[in-house]
Amino acid sequence: MKAIKYISHLAFTSSLILLFGCGQSSSTTQVETEEPVVQTPVEEPPAEPEPVITTASVYAIGDVLLHDSVYNAARVNDGFDFDSSFERVAPILERADVAIANQESMIGGSEIGLSSYPAFNSPFEIGDALQRAGIDLVTTANNHTLDRGVRAIENSINHWNEIGMPYTGSFLSEEDKANIRTLTANEISFSFLAYTYGTNGVIPKQPYHVNYIDLEQMRPEIEKAEQTTDLTVVSLHFGTEYETLPNESQTELTQKLADLGVDIIIGHHPHVLQPPKMLEGVDGNQTFVVYSLGNFLSGQQGDDRNTGGIIGIDVVKTTEDDVSTFELKNPMFYPTFTQKSSEGYYEVVPLKSAKPELFSPVSNHMSQWLPELTIEQ
């Protein structure tokens, strides 16, 4: 009812206006209206951009040194099958963003004659198997690089190129040597360099055939790597064979490399495990070093020489305001053991399954300088 009354009142008022307004044409009726109230929105301060965090894992394995007992056991028809050797550890390698192997015996191929200690030459097929197992790059600077001369080096490198496997440590030319190998994973870039203490007294035909440990020659290459990528990884063939702790020359050299800004150092040659450690460079930078990863696949005898492993470290990149910082986190070690399988071939298996009694002492040995090291199995 209120609505009806209100409408009638409006109709009556309108009639009066029309009646009297006809005689007063000069008058104008003004209707006052209220200006709408406009509320100015309160501006929120811009949100701080969240830092962008990415992570890449780097794994490495020790010496792949093929004695005749190993490659003879892998013969099939007209070639060799090493896939079975890595079958039980391939899932660990495959989960890495970047995985590195030290191919200690050159893969010069069967055409120049395979050979074992003291002058090694291995089948091409070991390179193929490593790639299928998850390896992304091989290092080839070691005391056996020159065992079979230039032909073995050229054959080896040609095969690495044929299958698309990056290599470093021995080269075909000065131009090849100057091309620092790099890999990128999850927007984090890595440079790779490799050097050896010596080549068993054999003199290279050309200086680019093998990289030697010489700090004055290493320095410009490391500086170039530092300017090229986010992180620098250096593999060193050094130390005393069968010694379970690094010697003074190893610790001095790794500290010098840390001071140059090297981020990760992977050691080989002793054929037994030496523990990892986190170093601090002169500028306060982190350097992760493992002094020796022992043998990964070889025909050497003895539990200590058949015990090796997969070392891993996470690289965490944090980008904020266009500035990136890097941290090395979550070091891990996966101990392995090389044994002869029931079918006769050599296989790399988890240490705990092959030699459970060794798992605890090996774990303690490897974590003695790095308590945060996670031992996996």
From TrEMBL:
Organism, per UniProt?
A: Exiguobacterium aestuarii
* SUPFAM superfamilies reported in the protein's UniProt record: Metallo-dependent phosphatases
Q: Which PANTHER family match?
A: CAPSULE BIOSYNTHESIS PROTEIN CAPA, POLYGLUTAMINE SYNTHESIS ACCESSORY PROTEIN RV0574C-RELATED
* InterPro entries assigned to the protein according to its UniProt record, in alphabetical order: Capsule_synth_CapA, CW_Biosynth-Accessory, Metallo-depent_PP-like
**Superkingdom of this entry's organism?**
Bacteria
Q: Which CDD domains match?
A: MPP_CapA
The alphabetical list of record keywords is: Signal
Q: Which residues form the signal peptide?
A: 1-25
Entry coiled-coil feature ranges:
none
Q: Which family does it belong to?
A: Belongs to the CapA family.
SMART domains on file: PGA_cap
Q: Which ranges carry the Capsule synthesis protein CapA domain?
A: 57-300
Identify this protein by name.
Answer: CapA family protein
Asked whether the keyword NAD is assigned, the reply is: no
